[in-house]
Amino acid sequence: MKIYFAVPVIVEKSPSVPYRDIKEFLQKRGHQILTEHLLEPEVWESESKLPREFVYERDTSWIESSDVLIAEVSIPSTGIGYEIGYALSLKKKVLCLAREGVKVSAMIEGNKNLTFFRYRDPQEALGALEDFLEMAEERI
Question: Are 118 and 99 in contact (CB under 8 A)?
């Protein structure tokens, strides 16, 4: 399955968010992560040098070609919110994961057109991810 994994690029990735665990989980199951490079530590340096129009066209193209979008929304990001809305407008299946106790926009948490899950630890997040992917594979 092709997966668009939406993660914040501008802000430093929080060590309490299991980005790498999610990446490894998806890779071990043979999924293609279209945004894998965005998980690299110095990604902002390289991404900030790209023309904005290129980033928009590349990312929307990836969303269009993806089977599902998975977003970690514990860190607020306008870009991730846009990506979620864009994927939903294309009728893509969307999973939003958030750490227990963090504030998440009501536009995300209250949206019945996506799957929203709060987790206490990485294992809970991966369990929700596994359930979501099984459901998504049945519909693809």
Answer: yes
User: Which amino acid is located at 62 in the chain?
Assistant: W
Query: What is the Cα 68 distance to its own chain's centre?
Result: 9
Sheet arrangement for strand 32-33: 32-33, 2-6, 68-72, 93-99, 115-119
Structural domains of the chain in order of their starting residue, each with its CATH number: 2-139 (3.40.50.450)
Beta carbons of 2 and 27 less than 8 angstroms apart = no
Measured distance CA(111)–CA(82) in Å, rounded:
14
Amino acid at 86: Y
Angle at the Cα of 123 from the Cα atoms of 121 and 128, rounded to 5 degrees: 100
pTM: 0.92
Q: How far apart are CA 85 and CA 79, in angstroms?
A: 10
Comparing C-alpha atoms, which of 128, 76, 123, 73 is closest to residue 99?
Answer: 73
CB 136 within 8 A of CB 35: no
pLDDT per position as a tens digit, 29-47: 999 999 998 887 778 788 8
